[in-house]
Amino acid sequence: MEESYRINKKRNTWSRLGDALSKTRSRVSNGIANVFSSGRELDDSLLDELEFNLLSADVGTNTAAQILDRLRKEISKRKLSSREQFIGALEDVLLDLANQLVKPLVITENRPFVILVTGVNGVGKTTTIGKLAHRFKKDGLSVMLAAGDTYRAAAIDQLQRWGQLNDVPVVAQQTGADSASVAHDAFQIANSRSIDVLIVDTAGRLHSNKGLMDELAKVHRVIARLDASAPHESILVLDATIGQNALLQVDQFDTAVQLSGLVLTKLDGTAKGGVVLALPSISSLPLYYVGLGESIDALQPFDPQDYVTGLLGS
Ligand SMILES: Nc1nc2c(ncn2[C@@H]2O[C@H](COP(=O)(O)OP(=O)(O)OP(=O)(O)O)[C@@H](O)[C@H]2O)c(=O)[nH]1
Ligand SMILES: [Mg+2]
User: Fold this and answer.
1) What is the CATH number of the domain that holds 54?
2) 123 ligand 1 Cβ < 6 A
3) Which end of the chain is more exposed for a tag (fewer CB within 10 A), N or C?
4) 171 and 127 in a common domain
């Protein structure tokens, strides 16, 4: 543990994730620096301040309490006293949580490999699909996109722009068409063209809107009827800028479309990046990717060490 902390201290450049976390870090690690100023002892009031710092980065009350509980045990068990020892122990506790979220998104042998992408309005679904298409193409896979957001003409245009940018085909119908029918057609076309990966966009919807959630469940059912193993991934996109509120969305989307993983967007520029640490407390879903900007390459597999280093500073 102390070894890994020393290695991080030597690091003089930030990972892209670490860079994106600068605002969150300013809440957590500047807070820790203040806590340790003027040679204070590792006592309860100091730990209370740390808890406050974690809460201000939107780690959430339950997770912050859990972190503090584990830290207190480490402090008494190993008689920690110095700042370095304390930060080393904190890093270990945070890494333990972050590691629970790691699982790579693997495109298995199924063809077409279908990825259904859902989430509330404006979280970054369509942008994430454009970025995923870019990644998969770089891996040598053929990709097709399905414009399942049929609510707005602009949504279809937006997906088509991502299709052009990636040079991948987009299956779309007119605005107002049945989203499940778009998914159905896209599957048949992808199948006939031996496409490797089909990514299905959907309209943003509030998790509390039963009618719209039923409609989403129908999209899922239609895909499963074409291939019982599909969708092979069902991804919920969450927006980091709303912090803890994002967690409320997971259950209802899971009920509608049996989620297999998460993507957390907009980690760049938010001070609420601590929300990542709360994810293991609400589900066992992996965090496949994090969104770190608007550009096509600003999507990375979640790296727990980069995340924790980004949070604590070097
Ligand atoms: N900074 C930042 N912006 C992002 C990220 N991901 C998406 N965005 C921006 O968020 C806005 C909404 O993105 P969309 O992809 O249209 O979101 P959506 O979920 O498809 O939205 P609806 O279809 O309207 O529900 C756009 O301006 C994106 O550029 C990210 O990781 N970081
Ligand atoms: Mg969209």
Assistant:
1) 1.20.120.140
2) yes
3) N
4) yes
Question: Is the same domain home to 93 and 148?
Answer: no
Residues lining ion ligand 2 (Cβ < 5 A) are: 125-126
Same-domain check for residues 137 and 271? yes
- Of all protein residues, the one whose alpha carbon is nearest to atom 29 of ligand 1 is 294
Last residue of a domain, one of 49, 76, 99: 99
Name the H helices within the chain. 2-10, 16-20, 22-35, 44-56, 61-78, 83-99, 125-138, 153-166, 179-192, 210-226, 250-257, 279-282, 304-312
Look at residue 106 and tell me if it is in a domain. no
Q: Is 124 in the pocket of ligand 1 (CB under 6 A)?
A: yes
The verdict on 158 and 290 lying in the same domain is yes
Give, for 16, the enclosing helix (H) or strand (E): helix 16-20
Q: How far apart are CA 186 and CA 176, in angstroms?
A: 16
Please tell me the residue having the least CA distance from ligand 1 atom 7: 124
Dig out the tokens for 82 from the structure: 């110095």
Residue 69 has pLDDT above 80, yes or no: yes
Ligand 1: residue of 265, 275, 287, 288 to mutate (most ligand atoms within 8 A of CB) is 265
What is the rounded CA–CA span in Å between residue 239 and residue 260?
17
Task: Convert the pLDDT of each residue in 251-285 to its tens digit.
Answer: 999 999 999 999 999 999 899 999 999 999 999 99
> Which ligand 1 atom lies nearest to the CA of residue 293?
32
Considering every ligand atom, which ligand is closest to the CA of 131? Answer: 1
Residue 8 has pLDDT above 70, yes or no: no
* Shared-domain flag, residues 164 and 273: yes
312 Cα–ligand 2 center, Å: 33
* Full residue range of the structural domain in which residue 38 is found: 2-99
Is 104 part of any domain? no
Contact 149 CB / ligand 1 (< 6 Å): yes
Which range, 9-18, 28-37, 156-165, has the best average confidence (pLDDT)? 156-165
